[in-house]
Design goal:
This protein has 31 helices and 33 strands. By secondary structure, the chain is α/β, with parallel strands linked by helices. It has 5 domains: 125 residues, Aconitate B, HEAT-like domain (Serine Threonine Protein Phosphatase 5, Tetratricopeptide repeat, Alpha Horseshoe); 184 residues, Aconitase, domain 4 (Alpha-Beta Barrel); 158 residues, Aconitase, domain 3, CATH 3.30.499; 141 residues, Aconitase, Domain 2, CATH 3.40.1060; 190 residues, Aconitase, domain 3 (2-Layer Sandwich). Strands 8-7-3-1-11-12-13 form a 7-stranded mixed β-sheet, with helices on one face. Strand 28, helix 27 and strand 29 form a beta-alpha-beta unit. Helix 2 runs parallel beside helix 4, helix 4 runs antiparallel to helix 5 and helix 5 runs parallel beside helix 7.
Length: 920
C-alpha cells in the first residue's frame, strides 16, 4: 500500500475523533502527492493539490524541502499546475519560514532571469529566518556586484521585513473568560498525562481545560465575532508550574488567530490575564506567539482607615473587587493610551504588557521574527558598510551610579551581547545574553524540534558550551507512545548536535537520568546562563531559567536569549539547624517564613532568589534552587564558598567522565570540553585569580529575607489544602504546615521518594531507615505502597558500591529492569516498596499515577490537582510534599507519624551537613 493510501486511512481514523488530517512532514509522502498532482487524470489529484498547498509543514521538515523544490520548478516553467501559478508559487514560498524555501528563493533571486529574480527578491525582503550559509551567498553576490543582492541587503538594513508590516490596531476588543479561580497551572491548559500528543497540535488542543470550557469559548466567539477571548486566572496567577509552550499553543488554538492560511493549527496572538499577573515563563511563551499578558489587579487587599491590611479569621488578607472581569465582560485594550477600558471607563494601566519591545512582538506575530530580524539587519548594515539604521525600540539600559551588582546582575553583565560597551547594567535593563548550557526534555522535545524546523535551524550554535536532550519524563513506561516518539526525538537532537540520553544507533544504553540533575552536573561555571525546557531548570551553579520549547529552540539555534535583568531577593540564614531536621524542611520553611515576614505577599514572585548557602554541595543546594519554581521565582542564584564550589566541580567532572565512558560524547567533543572548562575554573579559584561568584556589598535588592533555623523544630509539609473553602487557596504550594498539624491519624495511601528534589543522600536515608526499623522490629512491613525512583543511574551505581542498594533490594517487591521495561502504566499498588527506573516517575503525571482519590505523601515538586493523583467520586486526590524521612515513615505506618515517632525513626541518621554562613 502506498504512503498516500496510508495517509487517507489515517485521515478516516482521525475523522472518528473529530480531527482534521494530520499536517505532512515527510518527504516521501509529499513526493507521492506531487506525482499525483502532475498526473492530470489521477483520481486523487484534487485532494493532493489541497494537501500540498494547505497541509504541509514549513521550515526544514523533509516535506518542506520537497515542496520548495516543486514550487521552484513551477516558477521556472519546468512544471505547469493550473491551480498554482508562478505568482501563487512565490506566495506559498513566502509562508514557508526559511530553510529549503530560502535556498530556492536565493537560487531564483541570484539567477539569470531578471523578471524572476525581481519577484524572488520581493519575497526575500519579507523573510528573516536566514542562517550563515544563506547570508554568505548574499554577501558573495553583493561583493561580485550583483544588483539584486544589493537591493535585498538595502531592504534588510532598513528592516523593511518589519516596517512594512501592518501596524498594531489602536483598539483591541476582548471578551473575558474565567478559566478558573486561583492560580492556573499549565496542567489545566496542557495536562501532563497528554504529553504524548503535544506535537499533534489539533489533537492536543482537545485536552485544554474541559470540552465544556471549549464549547463556552466557542459560544463567546460566536456572540462577539469582533473580539478576542481573554483567558483569565481570577484571584490568581496565570500559567504557573511547568514551562509549556503547549499550554500557550492550546490557548492560541482556541482563542487566537491562524498564523498563516497555509500552515494548519499554528495560531498566534493569544490574550491572557491574571489577577496576580502572568507567571514569568508563561509570559515569555506568550511573547513567542505575539500575544498579550495582562496583570489585571482586579482584586486588592482591603485596608482599614490607618492603611493596615484587614485579615480574616485565618489571618489571610481580605480581598475587595476593584472591577469585574466576569465571563462575558467586553473590554477594550487601547495600545495607544496603554490602558484597559470597559466602555468609556478606564480600568487599569497596562503599559507593562505593551512595552515598545512587546509591541514589536505583537506587530511581527511573535518574538522570533524580531530576534532574527535584528540579526539580519545587523548583517546587512555591516555588509553594506553603513551604520545600523534605528528601526527597533532601543533596549532599556539602566545604570545606577554608586550601586554595586547582585550576583545575577554580574552574570548578565558578563554575558551581555550588543549592549553599550563599558556600561554597567542593573536590574530592569533589557539584555541579549550568551547562553552557555541548554537542556531539552522529552515531553517538550518534540515541540522543540518542530520549532527548530520552523525557524529553519539545522545545527546547534557553536557558542553553546553544551546541550543535553533527556529521556526522563517518559522513563517510567516504555509504551507505544514512547516507542514512537522518543527514538525520533533522539535522532533529531543527536544530529542537531546535542548530547542525547539515547543513542539513535543503539550504541549505548538508554539513559533516563532526570534532566535537571544532568544539567546541574554539566554546568561547570557559576557565571553561566542556562536555558532549559522545564520550569525546574534551576541549577545550583550559574543562573538557570526554565523556558518554553520555543525559547529552548532559539537558544540552541542562536546561542542567545533576550530578557530584562530581574530584580533579586537576598535570602540568608541565622541560628542552627536541628539534628532531626532534613534540608527539605529548611526549603519549605523559607517559603513559609517569607510569607509571614511580608504579610502574605510573595516577594519572590517573578524575581531572582539569591540564596546564601555557601557550604552546601551542588546536589544538596539544588534541592533549594529546584523548589524556587514553586516559590514562583523567575530563577535562583546559589552563592557558594570557594572550597565547596571546587568540591562540587570535582563531582561534576567525575559524572561527565561517566557519560563519556558510556559512549555519549559527540563529534564536537562537548563533554571533554566541559571537563577542560571545569579544570580551568578550579585552577582560577585555587590560584585566587577568580574566586567564586559573590554579589557586591553595596548591591541593591528588592527585599532581604532572613530565615531563622532555630524555630524549625518539626518537619514542614507543603499541603494542597484541597478542601479550603476559598477555592483560590487550593493547590498553591503556599500552605506550609508543621507535622504536628496532622496529629497521627492522617491516612497515607502511597509514598513517593523521587523526582529532581532528591539526591543520593535521600536514597541512603531510605536505606538507613529500613536498617533502623529492621533492627528494632525484626523486619519492615509497609502499610502503604512506597515508590522509590532514583534521579540517575550514577546514584544507583554509587549506592551499589556503598552497600545501600542491597538493603533497598531486600525490601522491594518490584525492581525495574532495563532489559524488560514496563510497557503499561501501573494503575493499582500493593503495600510494598517499588524500585522504579531512574527518571521523573509520579512527579510528571503523564505515565504513572497514584490510584484515584489517594492521599499521597511525596518528595516531588508538584501538588497540582490531577498531577500526581486524580480525584474520584466522593474523594479528592491530594499530594502532600515532604522530606524523604517523613515519606518513608508514613508509608511504613500507613499514616502521618507524630513528632515522637519521627524523631525516633531518624535517630542516628545524618540528614544533612548543612551549616549556613551565619548572619549573627
Amino acid at each position: 500500500m502506498s504512503l498516500y493510501k496510508d495517509y487517507i486511512n489515517e485521515i478516516e481514523e482521525r475523522k472518528n475523533e473529530g480531527l482534521n488530517p494530520k499536517p505532512i512532514d515527510g518527504a516521501e509522502l509529499l513526493s507521492e502527492i506531487i506525482t499525483q498532482i502532475k498526473d492530470l487524470n489521477n483520481e486523487d489529484r484534487a485532494d493532493s493539490v489541497k494537501f500540498f498547498i494547505y497541509n504541509t509543514l514549513p521550515g526544514t521538515t523533509p516535506a518542506a524541502g520537497a515542496k520548495a523544490k516543486f514550487l521552484k520548478e513551477i516558477i521556472l516553467g519546468e512544471e505547469v499546475v493550473a491551480e498554482i501559478t508562478p505568482t501563487y508559487a512565490f506566495e506559498l514560498l513566502s509562508h514557508m519560514k526559511g530553510g529549503p524555501s530560502i535556498e530556492v528563493l536565493l537560487d531564483l533571486a541570484l539567477g539569470n532571469d531578471a523578471a524572476i529574480a525581481n519577484e524572488a527578491a520581493k519575497v526575500l525582503k519579507t523573510q528573516v529566518f536566514l542562517y550563515d550559509a544563506d547570508t554568505a551567498r548574499l554577501k558573495d553576490a553583493f561583493d561580485n556586484g550583483n544588483a539584486v543582492a544589493k537591493d535585498i541587503l538595502e531592504s534588510y538594513a532598513q528592516a523593511e521585513f518589519f516596517t512594512k508590516l501592518p501596524a498594531v490596531a489602536e483598539e483591541i476588543k476582548i471578551v473575558t473568560y474565567i478559566a478558573a479561580e486561583g492560580d492556573i497551572s499549565t496542567d489545566l491548559l496542557s495536562p501532563g498525562n497528554q504529553a504524548h500528543s503535544r506535537s499533534d497540535r489539533e489533537l492536543h488542543g482537545k485536552c485544554m481545560i474541559t470540552p465544556e470550557a471549549q464549547a463556552e469559548i466557542q459560544a463567546l466567539q460566536a456572540q462577539h465575532p469582533d473580539a478576542s477571548v481573554m483567558l483569565i486566572a481570577e484571584k490568581g496567577t496565570m500559567g504557573v508550574g511547568s514551562s509549556r509552550m503547549s499550554g500557550v499553543n492550546n490557548v492560541a488554538l482556541w482563542t487566537g488567530k491562524q498564523a498563516s492560511p497555509y500552515i494548519p493549527f499554528v495560531n498566534i496572538a493569544p490574550i491572557v490575564g491574571g489577577t496576580n499577573g502572568i507567571s514569568p515563563i508563561f509570559l515569555t511563551t506568550v511573547d513567542v506567539t505575539g500575544g498579550i499578558g495582562i496583570d489585571l489587579k482586579n482584586w486588592v487587599k482591603k485596608t482599614d482607615a490607618e492603611g493596615n491590611v484587614v485579615r480574616n479569621e485565618n489571618g489571610d488578607p481580605i480581598l475587595e473587587e476593584v472591577y469585574s472581569v466576569a465571563t462575558g465582560t467586553v473590554l477594550t485594550i487601547n495600545t495607544k493610551t496603554q490602558k484597559l477600558y470597559n466602555g468609556e471607563q478606564e480600568l487599569i494601566d497596562i503599559s507593562k504588557a505593551l512595552t515598545p519591545q512587546k509591541m514589536e512582538f505583537i506587530k511581527a506575530g511573535g518574538s522570533y521574527a524580531i530576534v532574527f530580524g535584528k540579526k539580519i539587519q545587523t548583517f546587512a548594515a555591516q555588509t553594506l558598510g553603513i551604520n545600523i539604521p534605528t528601526v527597533f525600540a532601543a533596549s532599556k539600559e539602566i545604570s545606577n551610579d554608586n550601586q554595586g551588582l547582585t550576583a545575577v546582575e554580574k552574570i548578565f553583565n558578563r554575558n551581555a551581547v550588543g549592549s553599550t560597551p563599558g556600561k554597567v547594567l542593573h536590574a530592569g535593563s533589557d539584555v541579549r545574553v550568551k547562553v552557555n548550557i541548554v537542556g531539552s526534555q522529552d515531553t517538550t522535545g518534540l515541540m522543540t524540534s518542530q520549532e527548530l524546523e520552523a525557524m529553519a535551524a539545522t545545527v546547534i550554535s557553536p557558542s553553546v558550551d553544551g546541550a543535553y536532550q533527556s529521556g526522563c519524563h517518559t522513563a517510567s513506561v516504555w509504551d507505544k507512545k514512547a516507542q514512537a516518539n522518543i527514538p525520533k526525538l533522539m535522532k533529531f537532537m543527536n544530529d542537531f548536535g546535542l548530547i542525547t540520553a539515547r543513542d539513535p544507533k543503539g550504541e549505548y544504553h538508554a539513559m533516563t537520568d532526570v534532566i535537571h540533575k544532568v544539567l546541574n552536573d554539566i554546568t561547570i561555571d557559576e557565571w553561566a546562563i542556562i536555558i532549559g525546557g522545564d520550569s525546574h531548570t534551576r541549577m545550583s551553579k550559574g543562573v538557570a531559567f526554565g523556558a518554553d520549547s520555543g525559547t529552548v529552540a532559539l537558544a540552541l539555534a542562536t546561542g542567545e536569549a533576550s530578557m530584562p535583568i530581574p530584580e533579586s531577593v537576598k535570602v540568608t540564614f541565622k541560628g542552627d539547624m536541628k539534628q532531626h531536621m532534613d534540608f527539605r524542611d529548611v526549603v519549605h520553611a523559607t517559603q513559609s517564613q517569607m510569607l509571614q515576614q511580608f504579610g502574605g505577599e510573595n516577594v519572590f514572585q517573578g524575581r531572582i532568589i539569591e540564596v546564601h548557602i555557601g557550604t552546601l554541595l551542588a546536589d544538596q543546594a539544588f534541592t533549594f534552587t529546584d523548589w524556587t519554581a514553586e516559590m514562583k521565582a523567575k530563577a535562583s542564584i546559589c552563592i557558594s564558598q570557594d572550597e565547596t564550589l571546587i568540591e562540587s566541580l570535582e563531582i561534576a567532572k567525575g559524572r561527565i567522565q561517566i557519560m563519556i565512558d558510556k559512549g555519549m560524547e559527540n563529534k564536537n567533543n562537548v563533554l571533554q570540553g566541559l571537563i577542560d572548562k571545569a579544570n580551568n575554573r578550579i585552577e582560577e579559584i585555587k590560584s585566587g585569580a577568580k574566586p567564586a561568584l559573590t554579589p557586591d556589598a553595596d548591591a541593591k535588592y528588592f527585599a532581604e529575607v532572613v530565615i531563622d533555623l532555630d524555630i524549625i523544630d518539626e518537619p514542614m509539609i507543603a499541603d494542597p489544602d484541597v478542601n479550603n473553602a476559598d477555592v483560590s487557596k487550593r493547590y498553591t504550594h503556599d500552605t506550609i504546615r508543621e507535622l504536628s498539624f496532622y496529629g497521627n491519624d492522617k491516612k497515607v495511601d502511597l509514598g513517593f521518594v523521587g523526582s529532581c528534589m532528591v539526591h543520593k543522600d535521600d536514597l541512603k536515608i531510605v536505606s538507613q531507615m529500613l536498617k533502623n526499623i529492621e533492627k528494632k522490629e525484626g523486619k519492615v512491613e509497609f502499610n502503604a505502597p512506597l515508590v522509590v525512583a532514583a534521579p540517575t543511574y550514577n546514584i544507583i551505581d554509587e549506592l551499589k558500591a556503598e552497600g545501600d542498594w542491597e538493603m533497598l533490594q531486600k525490601y522491594s517487591g518490584f525492581e525495574f529492569s532495563d532489559a524488560l521495561p514496563k510497557a503499561n502504566a501501573r494503575t493499582e499498588y500493593e503495600n510494598i516498596m517499588y524500585l522504579e527506573r531512574p527518571g521523573c516517575n509520579l512527579c510528571m503525571g503523564n505515565q504513572e499515577k497514584a490510584e484515584k482519590g489517594d492521599t499521597v505523601l511525596a518528595t516531588s515538586t508538584r501538588l497540582f490537582q490531577g498531577r500526581v493523583v486524580e480525584d474520584r467520586d466522593g474523594k479528592k486526590g491530594e499530594s502532600l510534599l515532604a522530606s524523604t524521612p517523613v515519606v518513608v515513615l508514613s508509608a511504613i505506618l500507613g499514616r502521618m507519624p507524630n513528632i515522637e515517632e519521627y524523631k525516633a525513626a531518624v535517630e542516628g541518621i545524618n540528614l544533612t551537613k548543612f551549616a549556613p554562613v551565619s548572619t549573627k
